[in-house]
Amino acid sequence: MTTKQSIDPDILEKAADWLVLLHSGEMTEQQQLDFQQWQQQHPDHQLAIERAMRFNQNFAALPDHLDAKQLLQSKASLQQSMVKKFIWILSPVVTAWLAYQYLPWQLWQADLSSKTGEIRSITLEDGSTLTLASNSHVNLEFDQHTRKLELVEGEIYIQTAPQPAQSYRPFIVHTINGTIQALGTQFNVRQDDKNTNTLVDVYQHAVAIQPTKQVNKTILQQGEMAQFDRNDIQGVEKLQQIQPYWTQHLLVVENQSLDQVLAEIYRYQKGQYFIENTAKNIKVSGVFSLKNPKQSIETLAQTYDLKLNYYSEYVLYIKKEQ
């Protein structure tokens, strides 16, 4: 296989071109054919696309409000950033710096982790049950005074075990945005994809939420859900589902956009999808398997008249059938 050092910067720049166009959601039929042909012209072309998706985070960090025109206008700066990054990889001088900056050391060092597509259930030393969603990472700190759990990334469901009154230890979940203290409960905690918000669902009893920059705690009761950042809680709402269906490898949605549903499915499989703008807001309702994400995507395609173009094992472009 061609090594990283041998990929021509011009190929990397062209790969950046294609990824920007894919993200625009405005690819024509001819452009899709051209992209497929370009990938097949040389092994380095496919390698450049896959490497760009693994190492470059520019696209994931783009603001949601950018439209296709703005994306295409920003192509030059994205290309420059991407090509520079890959050229730097060729230099041994910066290898250690790149490893420190870009490799997820905090995730690798977590006490408990789940792989992409894996749902992992663990009984903790106090008898509580912890379930990790796909690609989730947790640190534990249990001592004689407290039961602390840090959600580094991903999503967890907790069923706390009762504690004798004489030896009670509070059960507290820490996230980058604050703490959630269990009050004899079953609850779900999730970090959003950009780690800017924490989402909490309470299925039994209650929890006490305290954002990092708040002095007071807010009690969230059974049947309620809330989202908070480091500064404040952004409203308490009625829980939308009676149980965390993902723990049963199911995705249950009602009147959600196709883009939202695909984003959730892709938490359980490797790769990246791109979707035509005209298909993003199709409203979806149904029950989909998280054990077999590809089958769920095919079900969506059949139900909502979608065309699936797989350009590799990791790249999927989705559009409405004509």
UniProtKB/TrEMBL annotation:
InterPro entries: FecR, FecR_N, Ferrdict_sens_TM. GO terms for molecular function: sigma factor antagonist activity. It comes from Acinetobacter puyangensis. Residues 111-200 form the FecR protein domain. Residues 14-54 form the FecR N-terminal domain. It comes from the Bacteria. This is FecR family protein.
